[in-house]
Amino acid sequence: MIVKQLRNPSEKEIERIVELTSVGADSSPREAVPNAAFLGGDWTLHAEYCRAQTRAVALEGELYVGLAEGSGLIVSTASWFSPGRSMFDSEAQKALGYNQFLLKLTEETKDWEKNTFGKIVVEKVETLFMKEEIASRWWCYNLVTDPEYQRQGYASALMKVLADKADKLDNMLGLIATTEENVNFYRGIGYRERGNVHVPAPTGDFDMHVMTRDQSSKAFD
Fold first, then answer.
1. Residue 92 — left, alpha, or beta (φ > 0 → left; ψ -120 to 50 → alpha)?
2. The N-acetyltransferase domain covers which part of the protein (predicted)?
3. Residues in CB range of 104: below 8 A, 6 or more apart
4. What pLDDT score does 22 carry?
5. For residue 28, what are the CA distances in angstroms to 36, 94, 182, 194?
6. Distance separating alpha carbons of residues 80 and 78, to the nearest angstrom
7. Domains of the chain, start order
8. pLDDT band per the 50, 70, 90 thresholds, residue 32
9. Is 161 helix (H, G, I), strand (E, B) or coil?
10. How many C-beta atoms surround the C-beta of residue 118 within 10 A?
């Protein structure tokens, strides 16, 4: 398999990543619950939201893809932000589709994201980390593989790229998992669960499993 970073993705590549993310949500009802919260339950906005995220990561984060041998088709993708950065933390990122997306959300959804979810992240997620850890922490916002190519090592290969990079820099990796299946996958590649945070949402409550990996974690196979 081929793994590479997309620094300046084409519109075709962006749309393929959006397609992958949409297929991933459709194939996993449990993963759809947290996604629904950020959309206010309006799935017609999902592609637009994924597109804004992908463009934001390509601009100021690190976007990786796994390509199927022979066809070169993008079949897996991972989105990361380096220490000190996050999704939509700059006006430049927001201008790539996120601002337009926000205009289509209901006031209830925007209030939930700012005053419920935002408060939980500050008070219950970030407090699981020491300041020194936050300062050296990479964060994964998205990892998805085409269902037809799952269990073939694509996701693990994408995650290994950042694991190797973080190990060399003496950095930590962090992410949120929302299903037991994903928790088990991340444990299998050296992550441990720091905490489990319950999130109430109008579209359905969900749990966030905060996972981290550092130099003390077991090496990838």
1. alpha
2. 82-213
3. 42, 45, 48
4. 84
5. 12, 28, 11, 24
6. 7
7. 2-213 (3.40.630.30)
8. confident
9. helix
10. 11
